[in-house]
């Protein structure tokens, strides 16, 4: 009996002990839970609440509408339209081939669509949205939307698509947009602009589209959308509307552009027309051209090969990137240099027996012509090579370099297009820098002879020649050449002009200008360009040029040599001579004589621009009616006012506040673009570059 009571007492003690242990353990557990709850709800509240919101709220970027581009008369050159696309997220598709087979029964998928899609798959990550098909019509979009649940990982999206309604017209000016590449993404990250491109698939690759990318793109908006755990949207919590890109009004006149391009059909070459008083680029032709619409969604290999393998190089922007010897069109500037530097008077006569002899070498006139005693006026009118051969050693290459660079030769003009090249304006310092061997670094006096007639080491862009012609026509006032005249803020309607003041003024003596300008008028009246301007209702002034391309010894006729070895035909001119409203420079590659090939093109360009029917409203700058109607009254008046800028009398009129005011051009280091491949942004993924040569130089004929 005693033993039983003792055992019972021990069991009770064990039970009590167990209860205490269990209680303490429970208290510890609840204490840990309470501590964890305190840690999560109090200490970590802000951070965890933010993460919870990120899981609950999806931030969806809203890409902005890209700004439109119109010409000076409101003709649309680049616009946007809404497009339906099918995009695939590879990570959410279990069986890609089966999905494509099933989808092809609902939506048309061509072999080319599938080929491009597989190429894009290899170039993008598993979680990227990869374009499968674009340009879906309303029926296809509606049909897929009804069956979207059957295709996880495939999304129907609406987007803005760029379109160039003028197709090949002004393609080198407009450029194009293309899909954002890895290189573009890296550059955007480096510039701190990547956030503004979330949800955007394209970016400007060439031309105005690239140069004015920041203005055209706008600012990306966003939507904060509440989603379920499976990712299905529930409601929109907050929305920030995107800011559309600015609209651009170009100085280009699409009517003049089409006329000029028509004149270059079947020819290779370039033409630039500028308003001397404002710097407005009125026409900018590079022939042959291409259709920029091919590049919007990525050019296919077949079309790329047609463009890239063409011996005519349609992708090269000739006025901007091609450099040429400009031949006799350089002579007016050499003559002006001789007058300004007091190297020769206008009335001094030089014997012209048909050649200039120096150090036992004879440099002959083109065609072997001999003009007898010749003064500066007559030398320009008949284009006497002998007269200008003799000026080369007298002026000296360095003095000629310092004078002509003020007109823009061998300098970057700063036009609002990417890829501009400087070319070569030779000097003794340039030659020392250009050659490595000491024997090649020395400048010989005989080399100045070639330079004085626009040959030798001279190599300029057509844009530089056109700009120099405009500066000469404007009496030395340098207006920066530009293609964008007005920028319209799409939200506020505010209009901003891009160039309003001259950059600088070259100090030229009026009597020297008169000598050269009078001679250029007589070139058209009685000289080498007379046939092209017979019966013109206006008086033009200009200079023909024929630039030698390859070294062909002895006399020859253009028809007797292969086309690619023939001379370039050039012409520079402005009109009307008494009050210039247009300055033109053009080249027809391997075209032959400037007087017979190039000058007639300029005549037709002048006829169009100076025709009475067109000039009635020549100073009006219009935007599309739908844009103008939405502007405030003051902005509406500003967009239609004249672009004429009063001609300043001296450099003192340049305002320090002018955004485009610069000091006279200085020698600059080699253009960084010169060593780059100009077609890199256009080339399909993996395509190799191709060597491009537009021409070589040869020395004047020596005997």
From TrEMBL:
InterPro entries: Beta-lactam/transpept, PBP_dimer, PCN-bd_Tpept, Penicillin-binding_protein_2. It is found in: Cell inner membrane. One of its GO terms (molecular function) is serine-type D-Ala-D-Ala carboxypeptidase activity. It catalyses: Preferential cleavage: (Ac)2-L-Lys-D-Ala-|-D-Ala. Also transpeptidation of peptidyl-alanyl moieties that are N-acyl substituents of D-alanine. Its main location: membrane. The active site is at residue 328. Its EC number is 3.4.16.4. Residues 269-606 form the Penicillin-binding protein transpeptidase domain. The chain crosses the membrane at residues 15-39. Residues 635-703 are annotated as: Disordered. It is a single-pass membrane protein. The keyword rRNA processing does not apply. Residues 61-236 form the Penicillin-binding protein dimerisation domain. The keyword Transmembrane applies. Keywords: Carboxypeptidase, Cell inner membrane, Cell membrane, Cell shape, Cell wall biogenesis/degradation, Hydrolase, Membrane, Peptidoglycan synthesis, Protease, Transmembrane, Transmembrane helix. Pathway: Cell wall biogenesis; peptidoglycan biosynthesis. Catalyzes cross-linking of the peptidoglycan cell wall. Belongs to the transpeptidase family. MrdA subfamily. NCBIfam families: pbp2_mrdA (TIGR03423). HAMAP family: MrdA_transpept. This is Peptidoglycan D,D-transpeptidase MrdA. The gene is mrdA.
